[in-house]
Amino acid sequence: MKKEVISICPVCGSNLTITKLHCHRCGIEISGDFALPAINKLSREQLTFVLMFLKNQGNIKAVEKEMNISYPTVKKILNEVLTTLGFDINEDAASGQRQEILDRLARREISFEEANELLKNLK
Fold first, then answer.
1. HEC profile for 31-85?
2. Half-sphere exposure of 18 toward its Cβ, with a 13 Å CA cutoff?
3. What is the reported pLDDT for 91?
4. Mean confidence (pLDDT) of the chain
5. Is residue 56 very low, low, confident or very high in pLDDT (cuts 50, 70, 90)?
6. Which of the listed residues 9, 38, 43, 81 has the most CB atoms within 10 Å of its CB?
7. What is the distance between the alpha carbons of residues 106 and 85, in angstroms, rounded to a whole number?
8. How far, in Å, CA of 104 to CA of 73, rounded?
């Protein structure tokens, strides 16, 4: 059973790097200072969310249903993932969330009461 690579030092919380690579087939070893991909910064829960999001082809409604969570929760987790990966989440995100809620209301996917509650829960 292979062990998963961790990216954060359990002692001090700093980022870890890989210093040795080994090929089991030919036995070669390469030493250096290798950075982990940004995706390795995600927690297990965030990675599970990303896989679910991709499986559902970015369809937030499908993610809501499969994870049994609300639209604002999906957006919150998505924003946390984006922040962890180093993307800037600006004030326009709330504006986009408001518009998405209003669009869902217009398509009659949610009731007025649900839309009102979702809008109240936006940051």
1. EEEECCCHHHHCCHHHHHHHHHHHHCCCCHHHHHHHHCCCHHHHHHHHHHHHHHC
2. 13
3. 55
4. 88
5. very high
6. 81
7. 33
8. 16
